[in-house]
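This part of the workshop introduces the protein records we will be handling. A learned vocabulary of local backbone shapes supplies the integers on the structure line. Getting from the letters to the tokens is the skill we practise here. As an example, a complete record with its sequence and its structure tokens follows.
=====
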Amino acid sequence: YHEARSIGAIALLVAYGAAIPLAGIAWATPLFIAGWLALGGLRRPLLVGLPSILGTLGVLYFFVKLSLMPLDRGRGVFEQASVALYRLLGIY
């Protein structure tokens, strides 16, 4: 049991929850997954980056495309970037 990791995990979850309304799911989720994996001890960029990107794409496709749930797109430039990403991926 690592108390510092537990506190870091809680802080990461709170930061993720705060980042979603501002940056949107599409941009906050890969950072959250990467932070979670790094907190768990993974340090190789490929082992952190690949699941972060693929996991986020899976979440976006499942919820936005298949389930037709409107996920938070963020505000300002993040909203525009989210819509552009959705169009690039064929979700919108």
